[in-house]
Amino acid sequence: MQTWLESQFSLAGKKALVTGASKGIGAAIAEAFAHAGADLVLVGRSPDSLDQTRTSIEKIGRKVELLICDLSSSDQIVKAFADVQALHVDIVVNNAGTISRAPAAQTTLHDWNRIIETNLNSVFLISQACGRAMLERKSGAIINIASLLSFQGGINVPAYTASKHAVAGVTKALANEWASQGVTVNAIAPGYIETDNTEALRNDPDRNALILARIPTGRWGSTDDIASVAVFLASPAARYINGEVLTVDGGWMGR
Q1: Annotated catalytic, 160?
Q2: If I label 103, which of 58, 71, 133, 182 is the partner at 20 to 30 A Cα–Cα?
């Protein structure tokens, strides 16, 4: 029998949908949810890209479903989530994202639209589809992955910055509408995390030193640092947290 404390952080009996679950933060969150007792729906472009995460979750002993969808296409998202009631997900993590680096004056409309589609439109469309079912059941948790660039401007990433500012806004807007109906909507803003996307920065001695100098904790974050917070926000322990954009950055924003 679970203790009271264990029950507060348990996801037993829940089903969680995670986008961008093939690697990095998304894979870590999916595996952490499985350890907490949840079954998973993994969303990605192809079954092959999700194989490693699926295998890891099955080894933990949880059930896994795959939902194949290109999240840069609003049309594909609408089709994939047309029968969202059949999925019956209790938790949604909108993690998938992309970035392109170029000065604002040279940013193409194609790149701008691709990033906005993936990082923002997918968040809203998936939250909207799954949220409708959650509202009918009067329960659910949605967790969006924001960024430090939800608060800062960055350099040479105008579309990414715009999308992540908007993710913070959408998180608060949905929370305002849905909190009274039993649905929590929050976001996590990761700091500098050890993933494939940051490998070039970590391998650059000068940039690496500058970044570490600003992080009070004195280290890069791990994907597990983000995954553990996601488990908390999805759990009963966080039932009175809503509309929050929680920075997990080793103290970067407080510096």
Answers
A1: yes
A2: 71
